[in-house]
Amino acid sequence: MEGFRLNSIKNTGGGRFLKNYELNYTNKKGNPKVYEMVSYRDISDPEEIGTRVGGAVIVALKGDRILLLKEFRMAVNRFVWNMVAGFKEHGETMEDCVRRELYEESGLKLVRIREMLKPAFAAVSMSDVSNQLVIADVDGEISDHTEDDELIEAGFYSKEEVAELIRNETFTSRAQFVAYAFSRGFFDEKENP
Hints:
By secondary structure, this protein is an alpha+beta fold.
């Protein structure tokens, strides 16, 4: 788009985890504009926006069941259905992040990673946060290792149970799509003919 460009970024505050920014840009008609966004990291140059993968979103499978979390989320003041997810810690590989988050949020162990997708942005209308979707086989018994400020109930669900949850419960958008795909057999491992 001719004339459309991001000119500068300015930190306007924030808290411990989220930083607020104003993006000064020129729209396609050449008019100066301001856009607000948040990020989990410090950004000083517009070229840094969206350049770092934040963490993992995990599609955790055990046999013919999927792991889903029912968790209380402060930003919507209610329980929502979600998947295990979390940010990479400094120096962690993505596989390390998956192992740690699985244990922290469900007590489960990673058996193998089936696939790790290219990073995708989580909320492009307001943030540069990106995550990698990791499809993994897990094992073990569910146990609570969450922090005091987290309220998470982990459980394994069949395709039929997931289909019922989709009809009647509130999900995050990513978990809703993954749950729908699971209920339709998308993650079934096909035997080679």
